[in-house]
Every structure is written in structure tokens, then in C-alpha cells.
């Protein structure tokens, strides 16, 4: 078991990543249902581990075939020496495990996203998938080159295709760079929503105590509202808002104040009166104003949290709020949160159009790994100088003839007949 442990870890990690990718592409699911004897669904459950175990079982036969092709390619390149070398490479993980020097791999992901969600599961698993694709391309190309006697002309033709592919890969990375730019802009907008919510929650807590709301039994509408709106703002302080804010965020100022225009006006006026009391503004004339007698709770709202103008309220709201000290900056922060939702929606739509499904790009990367294996095998063939065929038949023909004679033995025919009769 110690010898087989590395192979199990490698395949299990690959199965986890492949399951996550296939679920992201909509080709597999991690949800299961149970039916009774009448084929009626009686229960359903979600189990990515069970789905991965099933996929692991399906991967065993292809992995065994790939190992055989790898050894086959080694024989074509170097005869007995090539065969022994490829077998040694395949046995190396098991030997390292026996010597207790095989590293611990991150096999099972820390989280799994139903439907994909752009997650890749473990990096280890994806590296294994890429390595298997590369090995497959390397082995199949060597076998094909030998069987069909593909020479230098074939490799030159492939090089033309390879160079065109290299240029196309540049476009792939440009698109990926654009996706990263959108991701950083989305993360920045989410941080503004987080900071705005935290800033306003702190001011609402101070208002609730300062206005003696608890002592006097919620003396005004704003006292009651200040406690209700905090529940909504707490949701907006999540570090990773995802698409929650674009779905459930506010569309208008009334969404914060209860959806009633009359109640909205009452609360806004009460807040304006509170700010005027705590943070009096002295008009010095000529457009100059003084804030000398303001309370210690009055502070200028950070510019990033106060970039939008509030709706009109019959002159009760100061126009230039960005430089005005406020004890409760709802007229600054709430419009900013509303506009933040619109910005996030725009950015997410652009990112979706630009990037598409990330799992499609990763599968393209796996295909590129296969082609890299083909390119490496062309170089390997040149390196061992096995392109100069003599008059002897290709080694693939020799092996196929050997297998044909092997299966013509009477005891093998009898064994096959017995298996068919069972």
C-alpha cells in the first residue's frame, strides 16, 4: 500500500479537479437522488466526494492504457533500454514512497463549489491533468510517427502549425489579462461597498446612543430605522460579496428607508436636523463657511464613500457634502451604495462577455498541453536519432505482430471463449 499511495494521491487529486471542471461545464453533477421501488424520488443529497470517487474509478483504465503507451513509446525510441527507462520513470513515485521521501500532496480541496463558480479545486490536481495530457501527446505522437513512418516533412508541417498556435496563445493571455483587470475593478468596488457599510454602521451606533433612542423608547422614526437598516448593512460587510449585492442590493434611496416615500422624507429630515444640531454650519458670506463649533462626532466623510449627490429634499440637504462634517452621513453613503450596485452590475456583465466560462479556457489549456507533448516528442525523436529508419519494419509492427501471435495461442482462445460463455 505504501508503494501504491503516490499513484492513488495523483489520480485522486486529478479526479477532484476534473470533477470540478466538468461540473463547471455542465457535463457532470455532484447532486444525487434516491428512488423507491416505484421509481419515485424519495430523497436527494449533494456529495462531491461520491461523484469524485465514481470519476476516479472511470480514470483507472485510461491511466493504465496511458502507462502502456508510455512504455510502448520508450521501446520505439530505445528498444530494451528505452523500455527499462520508461518503466523506471513510472515506478519512481512508488520507490520514493517506499523511501519515505514522497512529498505530502494537497489531494482534497478545502472547498468545492456546486455548479463550478470558477473554482479549480486543487492546483495539484490540475497539474496532474496537464502532465497526463502532455504524456499522452508525447506517447501517441512517437507511436504514430513510427507506425506511419512520419519523417522530417511531417515535423516541419507541425512546426508551422505550432508557431501559429504560439501567436494565438498570446491572444489567450491578453484576454486573460483583461479578465484580471475586471476582477481587480470588481474587488475594488466591493471593498467600497464594504467600507461604506462599516462606516455607516459605526455612525448609526453612535446616533442611537447620542439621540437617547433606547432611554426614551425610540423617540423618532430615525431611532427605529437606524436599528432596522443595520441588519441590511451587515450583509454588505461580507468580504466576498460575489453576486449577492448585484441581486439584493438597493436600487433607490427608498430601499434603505422602507420603500415609502413619505416615511423616507420624514427620516431624511430628522437626520438633517440632527446633523444641523451636532455640526452647525456658519455662513461667512461670499460662499465661505465655518465649521468651528461642530461636535467631536462630526467628521468629513472619506471621498471614496461620498462620490454621489443625494436626491433633492426641498433644500434641507447640503449640496457639497464631501467637505461638510457630518455626524450621520446617510446622504453621502447611501447614494454611494446605490451607485456601487450599478457599477458592479456593469463590471460583471463586461467580465462575463469578455471572459466566458473559465472552465472552457482551462480545457483549452489541457489541449495545449497535449500539443506541447507532441512538440516535445518531435524533439525527442531527433535527439535519439530514431528518425533514420533502416530497411527493418517499424517497431510498432513488430509489437503488433507479437500480440497477434500471442492471441493466436490455443489456451488464450479457450480462455476468451470461456469468458464469453459466462
- Please give the domain count: 2
Question: What's the story with the biggest beta sheet?
Answer: 2 strands, antiparallel
What order do the helices and strands follow? HEEHHHHHHHEEEEHHHH
Mean pLDDT: 83
Which outline best applies? elongated
Output the number of helix runs. 12
- Strand arrangement within the widest β-sheet reads 1-2
Tell how many strands the DSSP assignment holds: 6
Radius of gyration: 34 Å
Helix content: 55-70%
Strand content: 5-15%
Structural class: mainly alpha
Q: List the uncertain runs.
A: none
Q: What's the end-to-end separation, in Å?
A: 32 Å
In words, what does this structure look like?
The protein has 422 residues and is mainly α. It folds into 2 domains: 5-148 and 357-389, no CATH class; 189-354, no CATH class. Helices cover 65% and strands 5% of the residues. The chain is built from 12 helices and 6 strands. It has helices at residues 5-24, 48-98, 123-147, 152-210, 221-235, 244-248, 253-257, 261-278, 330-355, 358-384, 395-407, 410-421, and strands at 31-35, 41-46, 282-285, 288-290, 299-300, 325-326. The strands form 3 sheets. A two-stranded antiparallel ribbon has the order 1-2. A two-stranded antiparallel ribbon has the order 3-4. It is elongated, with a radius of gyration of 34 Å. The mean pLDDT is 83.
